[in-house]
Design goal:
Layout lengths: L2 E3 L1 E4 L3 H12 L4 E4 L15 E4 L6 H21 L4 E3 L2 E6 L6 H10 L5 E4 H7 L9 E6 L3 E4 H14 L3 E3 L4 E7 L2 E6 L3 E4 L2 E3 L5 H5 L9 E10 L14 E4 L5 E6 L6 E5 L4 E2 L11 H14 L9 E9 L6 E4 L6 E5 L8 H14 L28
Parallel strand pairs: 1-13, 2-3, 2-14, 3-10, 6-16, 14-22
Antiparallel strand pairs: 4-9, 5-9, 6-8, 7-8, 11-12, 12-13, 15-18, 15-19, 15-20, 16-17, 17-18, 21-22
Helix pairs in contact: 1-5, 1-8, 2-8
The structure holds flavin-adenine dinucleotide.
Flavin-adenine dinucleotide binds next to helix 1, strand 4, strand 15 and strand 20.
């Protein structure tokens, strides 16, 4: 007799752990399956921190971000652990840069989010660590900050179990068998039955969707986060220095001191090379390091030194950089989420949305931009727009 669950979550990284939590919190009988140890460093979700922000390029993302903050607050209340740390956020770049600051400002205005517009003089006055020309400008949004990523995932996992979920680590799903309302998930040692399957497999998504006859034009890249240790970290202290994004191509982003003593995390967005998640290495990419060092030399000179610590991590990129959050066409009970390299801040709310799709057949959030039916996902060689 195969064990039967209301829902099986395939993959317990950031998003899958969120789904397991919200499903269990809603009272579903849940099984979560993870091929590696919980909290492993071979996917997309490890390390201390991720940026969370309301500042986004469309009102739809801004609205989703509002619900992301609300969802993390509910997890914090339930778990008694602090997950979100607000330190303020600065999106800045040269006028006419590759990523439109005006678009961000318009989206926030449309969603009623307060922000400040800063010229170069004001940016230098508030954050003297930045060396910028007079043509640089920025948007400051006070609610931006950090999601304590590893703690958030651990918290989702712990509380999912408190609410009754069964989470199995070091169990690889080999195959998924769909038969109408009934789904069988096969691992090496066992098979499990369920009526709802939630696929949160990150870089392994296409392998896992093969059973549903779906193949998406995803690019998996090997990215890296770098920690730099300034001689004097006081200008980068949490509460003094913001999270920031350089809105040009290449795009860089960084944090105040958080997680590593006296060290500041900075990296390039989507600067990595294509990688196979099963055979990728964990070594530093000297080209990314060189690009980041050039940026630091020009704009954050106090950080311009060899990185003290380099951590590699994967992105699963859709060609338009938009998420996938949807029910697989032709099924009513296979739901999938893909984070497109910017979803940790949304990990809890995406887990909540997947739970709504599985248990209610609909969701409170507008996920129309994240549909599997968008034409670009049917193209064999779609144009890629990673700067958003
Ligand atoms: C360097 C870096 C910086 C980032 N910065 C930010 C940021 O500042 N803000 C932000 O919001 N986002 C950021 N992101 C993006 C964000 O971290 C990801 O979008 C998010 O973590 C994706 O989570 P996931 O659950 O989809 O993927 P993963 O964490 O990779 O989870 C997928 C899981 O599925 C498991 N799995 C796959 N196949 C199987 C199988 N067959 N059987 C069992 N288990 C399986 C995997 O082992 C894995 O644990 C960053 C990402 C990186 C790499």
């Amino acid at each position: 007799m195969r064990e039967r669950y209301d829902a099986i979550v395939l993959g317990l990284g950031g998003i899958g752990s969120g789904a397991a939590y919200w499903l269990a919190r809603r009272g579903a009988r849940v099984l979560g399956l993870e091929q590696f140890e919980l909290g492993h460093a071979r996917g997309e979700s490890h390390d201390h921190s991720r940026i969370i922000r309301l500042s986004y390029h469309t009102p739809n993302y801004v609205e989703l971000a509002k619900r992301a903050y609300e969802s993390w607050a509910m997890v914090e209340l339930d778990s008694g652990e602090r997950i979100v740390y607000k330190t303020g956020g600065l999106d800045l770049g040269p006028r006419g840069g590759a990523i439109s600051l005006d678009g961000y400002a318009d989206a926030m205005r449309a969603s009623g989010v307060e922000f400040e517009t800063l010229d170069a003089t004001e940016i230098r006055r508030r954050f003297p660590a930045f060396a910028i020309d007079d043509d640089v400008w920025g948007l400051f949004q006070a609610d931006s900050g950090i999601v304590a990523a590893e703690r958030a995932t651990a918290s989702h996992q712990r509380m999912a179990q408190v609410h009754g979920a069964r989470l199995l680590s070091n169990v690889r799903v080999e195959r998924v068998e769909l038969s109408g309302a009934d789904i069988t998930v096969h691992t090496q040692d066992a098979s499990y039955r369920t009526s709802q399957l939630i696929v949160c497999a990150g870089p392994w998504t296409n392998t896992m969707l093969a059973g549903a006859n779906l193949h998406l034009p995803l690019e998996v890249t090997k990215e890296q986060a770098m920690y730099f240790r300034p001689a004097d970290a006081s200008a980068f202290a949490f509460g003094e220095f913001p999270v920031w994004i350089w809105m040009d191509d290449p795009s860089f982003y960084g944090f105040p001191v958080f997680g590593e003593a006296g060290a500041v995390k900075v990296t390039q967005d989507a600067g990595g090379k294509a990688a196979d998640p099963d055979t990728r290495g964990f070594e530093e990419d000297p080209e990314i390091t060189a690009r980041v060092r050039r940026f630091l030399h020009a704009h954050l000179p106090a950080l311009d030194s060899p990185p003290q610590l380099v951590k590699t991590c994967l992105y699963t990129l859709t060609p338009d950089r938009d998420f996938v959050i949807d029910t697989v066409p032709g099924t009513k009970n296979v739901h999938v989420a893909i984070g497109a390299g910017h979803a940790f801040k949304f990990a809890s709310v995406i887990g909540r949305i997947l739970t709504e799709l599985a248990l209610d057949g609909t969701t409170q959030s507008d996920i129309s931009d994240f549909t599997l039916a968008r034409p670009i996902l049917s193209m064999a060689e779609p144009p890629k727009t990673y700067m958003v």
